[in-house]
Predict the structure.
Amino acid sequence: QSVLTQPPSASGTPGQRVTISCSGSSTNIGSNNVHWYQHLPGAAPRLLMFHNDQRPSGVPGRFSGSKSGTSASLAISGLQSEDEADYYCAAWDESLDLSVFGTGTKVTVL
Amino acid sequence: QVQLVQSGAEMKKPGASVKVSCKASGYTFSAFYIHWIRQAPGQGLEYMGWINPNSGVTNFPQRFQGRVTMTRDTSITTAFMELRNLTSDDTAMYYCSRTRSRNGWFEYWGQGSLVAVSS
């Protein structure tokens, strides 16, 4: 069902840098902005990044985003234990007139 | 402040219908689209569609066509999502969220409504 592809898992030790990729197509990432969400168990998803690389107020600076062509990525620098969560990319799909989510990446802090 | 407050948990039998509500406050209800997203146990986020509260226009993925209805009642600033002919695969946490434009980002979310389908 997911139109955007992410690696199922990523991990690192505290302080390390972790990068999550998100691959789409010309009708979604290729022509629209990418947004990222952090989802912790038992809570509603939280907006982490909008417009590819913009952090909402309150999101730590160790989170950064980028987009190139039909792919995007989220980087977490200086990984902390509280960053252990599921991360999803999302984008608008022009051909569907709908938003689409990525498959999700579980980040583990070793 | 912006709040989206959803209805409580529901237990349904297969074949039944469920209607989840999303009460908005703290902003002009008709000026923001409402979206519905769900997460089944052990699965990822699944986008279910959007409604324009101003016009009532909706759109949802093909896989939900014929089974989902999204409505709103502007007098009580509430959006509704009804899902029919439930199966165990519909067991999930259902969330509502709002965006300024229909292609925007999901900044505010409801707390989630658990729907469990079991015989």
In short: The mean pLDDT of chain B is 97. Chain B has no helices and eleven strands. The two ends of chain B are 40 Å apart (CA to CA). Chain B touches chain A through 23 residues (CB under 8 Å).
